[in-house]
Design a protein that fits this description.
The protein is an all-alpha fold. Helix content is 36%, strand content 0%.
Length: 74
């Protein structure tokens, strides 16, 4: 994985922005998709600085499941 440290105009990202980008991309690495909630680090353009309770719950749920296909319903 390559992490961008400069914006499209060539300006360096602030360290906090790099941290947010890293958290978001590590979420994808763990198997998380984008969230519809702007309060989540997994939102497509995160504005928050830390993992939300929903981000944490989603990751825990993902890794609490038994290996194999997920069956929903009867």
């Amino acid at each position: 994985m390559t992490l961008a440290t400069f914006d499209p105009k060539g300006q360096p990202f602030e360290p906090d922005d790099v941290r947010v980008l890293a958290l978001h991309e590590i979420g994808h690495l763990l198997g998380l998709d984008h969230s519809p909630d702007p309060g989540d680090i997994m939102y497509p353009q995160p504005k928050v600085r830390d993992l939300s309770p929903r981000d944490i719950s989603t990751a825990l749920l993902l890794y609490d499941l038994a290996p194999g296909p997920l069956r929903v319903g009867g």
